[in-house]
Amino acid sequence: MMKKLLKNLSFFAISTLAVGTVHAQDPDAFLHVRFENNLEASTTESDGITFEVTDPNGEGSLIVYNSATPKEGSYAIDFSSYAYDADSGEYTDNVSIIDNSSNVQIQSTTNHSILGDDARTFAAWIRFDDISGGGGSHVILNMGDPTSSSQGRVTWTLAAAQDRIQIAVGGGNVNGNYTTGGSTDLEDGNWHHVAFTYDDGDALEDIIFYIDGNKTTNDGGSNTGNSFNTTNDLLTIGSRGNNTLKWFDGGGIDDLRVYDEALSEEEIELIYGGSLLSIEDVAFGDDELKAYPNAVVDVLNIKTTSNSVLDISVFDITGKAVIRTSGKSVDMSTLTTGLYIVKVREDNKVANLKILKK
């Protein structure tokens, strides 16, 4: 039975400009990998899902996590931290995890249970640097037998050479172009949120693509009328699973989520804006966090009962992150007048504060 999303999000009227938290858990994500300096995954799968680096030939199992450039939390997988020689056009360090010729990959230890034409949603933050300037295909997640035909796999990919997000299903593709009512360049070295939704029994042309919270175009696919027919197999992050399509250029992946139902447009926007908590997250208690002043002219002070150093992110009303810092305050003096969402994290406690900048 499909799990119902939690709908009881608590919002505060803009007119009150109150400091408050969003009292909601992430809507039972089937899988959530945050890459917080590890591959730990939370899941609603009854048997659990864990990930590991498979390295059968002992080629080297290096994964680089970067604390300087995460999109969510404190770390992200970083494929740009490998030493790269611009003159030779080659990586010069231990690159087996991204080397197309190496049999090293990030893979689940058990099979998934989203099969056939079951509903699903994939969502993640991705960053693509295109260090070599060669474009190419850069897999985010593969579900199903990587060698399967007849729609037996779901290979979710940034197809940089074609300027699109692609879902290869084995025997055909369906594509979401880089246009969302304007031009969105995913190859600019910045973090972008990508997602797609697929409902029970839909045809491939019914898939809805999202880039940075906005719907993008669907080209209808090369197998019109066909549906997913996903096989029972392992999940692979950053590679197709047969070592022929990897993130061989620079970039990163953060906050990877899979749901076993098709999320609504509103729910995708909430994930993009950082308003949904993860399964492990809880809201601050009513008296555990104070933020002042509101409205703010320059510095917003944030105090918790534990008096800890906080991870602080500031988003404008479009969902764009405009400040990311750590501490007990955030300098908003350079921001234009308007309403902002300030996301505060202390371990697994999260608050989304509605703050007016004068």
Task: Tell me what you see in this structure.
This protein is an all-beta fold. Helix content is 2%, strand content 36%. It has one helix and 26 strands. Strand 12 (164-168) and strand 13 (173-177) form a beta hairpin. The longest helix is centred in the C-terminal third of the chain and has 8 residues, at 265-272. The termini are far apart.
Q: From the 3D coordinates, which CATH architecture of the largest domain would you assign?
A: Sandwich
Q: Report the CATH topology name of the largest domain.
A: Jelly Rolls
Series of H and E elements: EEEEEEEEEEEEEEEEEEHEEEEEEEE
Low-confidence segments, given as residue ranges, are: 1-25
Give the termini separation. 49 Å
What is the arithmetic mean of pLDDT? 82
Q: What is the percentage of strand-forming residues?
A: 35-45%
Output the CATH class name of the largest domain: Mainly Beta
The helical percent reads under 10%
- What is the structural class? mainly beta
Shape, per Cα inertia axes: globular
Tally of structural domains:
2
- Measured on Cα atoms, how large is the radius of gyration? 20 Å
Q: Give the helix tally.
A: 1
Largest sheet: 9 strands, antiparallel
Number of strands: 26
Task: Summarize it.
This protein is mostly beta strands and 358 residues long.
Itemize the secondary structure elements and their pairings.
Blueprint: E1 31-33, E2 41-43, E3 51-54, E4 65-66, E5 76-78, E6 84-85, E7 90-91, E8 105-108, E9 120-128, E10 137-144, E11 153-159, E12 164-168, E13 173-177, E14 191-198, E15 208-211, E16 214-216, E17 235-237, E18 251-259, H1 265-272, E19 282-283, E20 289-292, E21 299-304, E22 310-315, E23 321-327, E24 329-331, E25 338-346, E26 349-357
Parallel strand pairs: 19-26
Antiparallel strand pairs: 1-2, 1-18, 3-8, 4-5, 5-18, 6-7, 8-17, 9-14, 9-18, 10-11, 10-17, 11-12, 12-13, 14-15, 15-16, 20-21, 21-24, 22-23, 22-25, 25-26
Keywords: Disulfide bond, Signal
Domain LamG-like jellyroll fold: 118-266
GO molecular function: hydrolase activity, hydrolyzing O-glycosyl compounds
